[in-house]
Specification:
The protein has 143 residues and is α+β, with helices and mostly antiparallel strands. It contains 4 helices and 6 strands.
Length: 143
């Protein structure tokens, strides 16, 4: 391959406009609690709709009690994931995880669970899951 062939190939190669989320993005992400999006269980319960891909959305009456998010601070401060935890007025919990695959593709997973063991199993042991459990531990002391 000659010099002009290499030059033409480098100029004509399409650039992927989407920024794929990598393991390094997760390692370098800022994880923070979003108390501003949560409500106290002593307030009136609200009707909530929790999205889940490939399944029916979960509809509940209750409170969003925890919310943690992961932001990619190295690129454009985009949110690459979040976790939400809802408490229903019937004392069950609804867990939701949103993951960003690239700049446009989001995946939502949600499940209704009974107790803290199920909550931990749903959210897992990654940095975001640990942040969720720590937030839940702190706020649950108020009940």
């Amino acid at each position: 391959m000659g010099f002009l062939d290499k030059l033409f190939k480098s100029v004509s190669t399409p650039v992927d406009p989407l920024h794929k989320v990598t393991e390094e993005d997760h390692r370098n992400a800022l994880i923070k609690e979003r108390m501003d999006l949560c409500s106290s269980i002593y307030s009136a319960p609200k009707n909530e709709k929790v999205q889940s891909d490939g399944r029916r959305d979960i509809v509940l009456t209750g409170w969003q009690i925890c919310n943690v998010e992961e932001r990619d601070t190295r690129h454009d401060n985009r949110r690459i994931g979040y976790l939400k935890l809802f408490k229903t007025k019937n004392d069950k919990f609804v867990c939701q995880r949103m993951t960003l695959i690239d700049d446009e593709e989001k995946h939502y997973y949600a499940s209704t669970v009974e107790d803290i063991v199920d909550i931990k199993n749903f959210f897992g042991n990654d940095g975001l899951g640990v942040a969720m459990i720590l937030m839940l531990d702190r706020i649950s002391k108020e009940w």
